[in-house]
Amino acid sequence: MAEALLRHRLEGRRVDVHVGSAGLRLVGEPASANGVDVLADRGIDLSGHRSRILDRELLENSDLALAMAREHLREAVLALPDLWPRAFTLKELVRRGQMIGTRAPGESIDGWLARAHAGRNRADLLGSSPDDDVEDPMGLSRSAYEQTAAELSELVDRLVDLLWPVAAEETA
């Protein structure tokens, strides 16, 4: 859901970036019926989505890696240790982004990410935390999917506003 919500939000802002997703367990599986239905209610078509497994090659080609939970972030950083400065949970990056402020005009995304990364500790990858983890609704009710979609939508909106503030002004 996060991939589709982010892609939709960036397309609406006319931001040209590639957005993809991968997980830890399944490959080639369609999105859950609840996920498809909940995003369809938001005008987003998830019916063609197929899962893929996180791998080193995918990570090497990423300018930014966002995880929904520390567990996923740990696996990504273990697979590619150099990814650490540009890999965050979505909640963590939004939180840190709000502390450092929006990306300044002319500031690169790499520069903004370096500021967001400052002071991080790899020990923060241990365990799980509601401060960093988005609850996975897999196998739960439609209501759980709606709650997760609402949380992800808010986080994605905040992230896009932090990273592409000029685009926000141009489309407002």
Radius of gyration based on Cα positions: 16 Å
Uncertain parts = 168-172
Oligomeric description of these chains:
single chain
The number of helical segments is 8
The total strand number stands at 2
List keywords for this structure.
172 residues, mainly alpha, two-stranded parallel ribbon, 48% helix, disordered C terminus
In short, what is this structure?
The protein has 8 helices and 2 strands. The chain is mainly α. A two-stranded parallel ribbon has the order 1-2.
Question: Could you describe the 3D structure shown?
Answer:
Helix 1 packs across helix 7 (142-163), helix 2 (33-40) crosses helix 7 (142-163) and helix 5 (90-100) crosses helix 6 (109-117). Strands 1-2 form a two-stranded parallel ribbon. Mean pLDDT is 90; it is low at 168-172. It starts with a helix and ends with a helix. With 172 residues, the protein is mostly helical. The longest helix has 22 residues, at 142-163. The chain has eight helices and two strands, in the order αααβαβαααα. Helix 4 (70-79) links the parallel strand 1 and strand 2 (87-89).
